[in-house]
């Protein structure tokens, strides 16, 4: 059996690692010309952390984690409203928590594959020809190649999903928000913190990165219709949406160079009745995107990739393996997506009353007394069976 993975992100690289451990030949294609350094920070805990432990990656990730001390809500003058201590986060996760840049996790996963799995950058799918004995794919360079299985790990805007299952609109659920981010030098006294300022329907934040003296600015705002702004319109669009907003927001927007690429995307979930068709299956955000508001994107990507690889290893029939993987994941994904939809409204309230309620609740809840509630809210538990860990030690090369 020879497998093609379309997508060299968190899900695709994790899947490639485990397929290689199970001696299943695999090729990864990634449309970017190399590893990308865009996007935002992620909470790394729960299932994702456990999979990384089984891959012996924790030490490498820990050395590159974001050195933040706390998450702080501020008012328009920068005065403290509420604070979540990073040590409390580590306590309620039993020490299994890291703040990571999205690209840090991808880079460490890629390093784990170096010299073992073929990764073809600058390649993407343009056509898929399913057959009874193989799936033949055409790449963007015009070449074709047969594979026994095709796995779409190409993210929320998956080309694999579009080619096999249909257009994105039939599977996407827009939650009513746009996010954007870009880096700046820290001239704003952000330090080792994650600082957030909210007004109804608008959020401006900044946090440190692993690179000394650098911060990442993060913006989120409510908008009725899903947007897709060309790169040259993103910064002007942000300046218009956030005009007049307090705290350091205007400085963030005026100090950035027009040449700095702005990452921007709509906050959407992907909801599908099934994740497989014929010899094609999806994994990660391509089929189960919970949005960044869930804090579970990396966990679902790595956990799903781990379970899919394991199912293919343990089951001779690939269709049975696909079904087993989906059965293990589906109900949990639905729960996480529902939780994220509910959390979105409280994370960024759209009214002055909603904002007042949120700030009042933050002052009360972000304390040791409510560690149990916080543990459930942030998804500190792994959904993998603890029995898997012992048997995995016999497989890892």
Major sheet attributes? 7 strands, mixed
CATH homologous superfamily classification of the domain at 3-68 and 94-171 and 269-346 and 370-392: FAD/NAD(P)-binding domain
Please report the distance between the alpha carbons of the first and last residues.
19 Å
Uncertain stretches of 5 or more adjacent residues: 393-397
Q: Mean of the pLDDT scores?
A: 92
Classify the helix fraction into a percent range: 25-40%
User: Main sheet: which strands, in order across?
Assistant: 5-4-13-14-15-12-16
CATH class of the domain at 3-68 and 94-171 and 269-346 and 370-392: Alpha Beta
DSSP, total strands: 18
The CATH architecture of the domain at 3-68 and 94-171 and 269-346 and 370-392 can be given as 3-Layer(bba) Sandwich
CATH fold node name of the domain at 3-68 and 94-171 and 269-346 and 370-392: FAD/NAD(P)-binding domain
* Count of separate DSSP helical elements: 14
Question: What is the radius of gyration computed over CA atoms, rounded to a whole number of angstroms?
Answer: 21 Å
Q: What general outline do the C-alpha atoms trace?
A: globular
Sheet/helix structural class: alpha/beta
- Report strand %: 25-35%
